[in-house]
Amino acid sequence: MSEISVFTDNPLEIRYVQGLDLLDICKQYGAPLYVYNADKIIDQIEQLRQSFSGVNLKIKYAAKALTNLSVLKLMKSQGIGLDAVSIQEAQIGLIAGFKPSEILFSPNCVSFDEIQEGVNMGLRINLDNLSMLENFGQTYGNSVPCCIRLNPHIFAGGNAKISVGHIDSKFGISTHQMKEIVALVEKYNIHINGLHVHTGSDILDPEVFLLGAQVVFDAAAHFSDLEFIDFGSGFKVAYKADDHPTDITDLGKKLTIAFKNFCQNYGRELELWFEPGKFLVSEAGLLLVKVNVVKTTPVSIFAGVDSGQNHLIRPMMYDAYHNIINISNPKGKKRTYNVVGYICETDTLGNSRDLNEIRVGDILAIKNAGAYAFSMSSNYNSRFRPAEVLIIYGEAKLIRKRETLEDILRNQVEIDV
Ligand code: LLP
Fold it and tell me: Which of 65, 148, 249, 304 is the most buried (most CB within 10 A)?
């Protein structure tokens, strides 16, 4: 593993990725720009594998975090499968070279047509409500296996919007409805090949995963043909210098023991699945933005950049903290800034940040822009989405072009008015 797992906010360390100067890359492809470091992604995969080396681990990358084809191909090259929540994510996965059987299809609140489409594509199916299970049984009987997503009734996650395993969440089938699940499975002789739990995102405490595991272990007694247990994801990553990520090593040790015990009682060794998004790509990504304006008011200094909530919605949507570094002026005197976007809303990317002096034209690196940054971006204010660059094998490769006005107008139908 390389030395990049340690959190740093040293501008000189951030500025060079695999020996390449981000300022040069920015000059070549223009700002704003998403840049992803393949080495960091590979490191994260390695860390997870090492922590779970005692079990038959399968990693299914949660494509929703970052769906660029080249990133998916990188995952594929590392022996990773895919977690898709829409037919489109699965289709992109197939284009990237995944076999249908390597893709777990875990949609929520979709019509049964979409489930059938998934079956026709040969995907592995994960169902999270009773009426779908009934439809599934009626349609396929014992001929197509499926996994069941359970709602473990655990409240966990970085904030309420990303907590999805509590009793009032729309996700999963309540463990209180186990009787109904079992009745349907028996009625239609459905082959349940896996059980799944996912309680939320940005979960720090390994105990939460262990609690969720116990819920699935208890439920497993009802199903004799299981092949895997999918523990979802939600590992917390570091967003700032004093931030603690989920201790994957500790979780690996504890869950391995619990899982082995479970398998022994179950009578067979099952596969242990995780489907990380953030853990694999969040820290691998930077959003590079250029400073348009430095504006001093009676109370603060704003650094206005050529990006905003259209490229990184997380600070606005979840009050997420993203570290910001001035990579153009690493030795500049520290001053306090509000880093804001160019969108006609208050799109503060970083409030009251001590940064090396910012000058117009400087490039700021916004960290943790690998997960849920591009994938949640928009054309709000009719702004273009930036290009994406993957740094791989010591080279910076363009993996998505910057949008143009044609992209924005493509599907508009102009009528005479
Ligand atoms: N599996 C399931 C069933 C999920 O719903 C999710 C995320 C994941 C795996 C991946 O979780 P992760 O490893 O990324 O925590 N947009 C929000 C996060 C939403 C997560 C949705 N589900 C954010 O930017 O914080």
Answer: 148
pLDDT of residue 156: 81
Q: Which of 57-71, 156-170, 309-323 has the weakest average pLDDT?
A: 156-170
Sign of the Cα torsion 323, 324, 328, 330 reads negative
pLDDT at 6: 55
- The closest-lying atom of ligand 1 relative to the alpha carbon of residue 65 is 14
Q: How far is the CA of 372 from the centre of ligand 1 (A)?
A: 9
DSSP calls for 278-325: HHHHTTTEEEEEEEEEEEE-SS-EEEEES--TTT--HHHHH-----EE
Mean pLDDT to the nearest integer, 17-39:
98
> What separation in angstroms does the CA of 338 have from each of 76, 84, 210, 343, 368?
40, 37, 40, 15, 18
Q: Find tokens 């117009």 and name the residue.
A: 360
CA of 208 to the centre of ligand 1 (A): 15
Q: What is the pLDDT of residue 5?
A: 43
What does the pLDDT read at residue 55? 98
- Share the mean pLDDT of the chain: 95
DSSP state of 97: T
**Does residue 216 contact residue 150 with C-beta atoms inside 8 Å?**
yes
Place of tokens 């995944």: 98
> How many other β-carbons are positioned within 10 Å of the β-carbon of residue 7?
17
Output the residue whose Cα is nearest ligand 1's atom 24.
372
Read off the tokens for 24: 């040069």
pTM greater than 0.90: yes
Assess whether pLDDT exceeds 80 at residue 149.
yes
Separation of alpha carbons 350 and 320, rounded Å? 9
Give residue ranges with CB within 6 A of ligand 1.
62, 65, 83, 106, 162, 198, 201, 232-235, 275-279, 314, 318, 371-372
Q: Is 344 a catalytic residue?
A: yes
CA–CA dist 278, 285 (Å, integer): 10
